[in-house]
Design goal:
Elements: E1 4-12, E2 16-21, E3 28-30, E4 34-40, E5 48-55, E6 64-70, E7 79-83, E8 93-100, E9 104-108
Antiparallel strand pairs: 1-2, 1-8, 2-3, 4-5, 4-9, 5-6, 7-8
Length: 111
């Protein structure tokens, strides 16, 4: 069985994406417009998932949209979606993904 760890991603305020966990790349990121990151596991087939976050995507609503997209196939990683745990009054979502140990985050530049 492969060792795993969890990564949690959520929006904070109107311009920050928080990535928490014990993998390389976890940090607080400025997100003016769309933020895009890739969780990449270099072991085996190089499995990965794309994470997309954007504030106010749905027009006038002041909330975050977070999505998970396949990149190279469909890794067998548990993905949990729900309200942000550290702020129960917020309407913002968070995504928690269980990834193999050694996975790291690559933040993609937006053009």
């Amino acid at each position: 069985m492969t060792d795993t760890t969890t990564v949690t991603i959520y929006g904070a305020s109107d311009d920050l994406v928080e990535v928490e966990g014990s993998i390389e790349g976890c940090d607080e990121y400025n997100a003016y417009g769309e933020w895009l990151g890739e969780l990449y596991n270099p072991v085996g087939d190089g499995e990965s998932l794309i994470i997309r976050a954007e504030f106010g995507k749905r027009g006038t609503r002041n909330d975050w949209t977070i999505s998970v997209e396949n990149s190279q196939g469909f890794p067998d990683w548990e993905v949990r979606y729900g309200p942000r745990e550290n702020d129960p009054d917020a309407r913002d979502p968070q995504v928690t993904i269980t990834v193999p140990t050694g996975t790291y985050l690559i933040v993609k530049d937006r053009q």
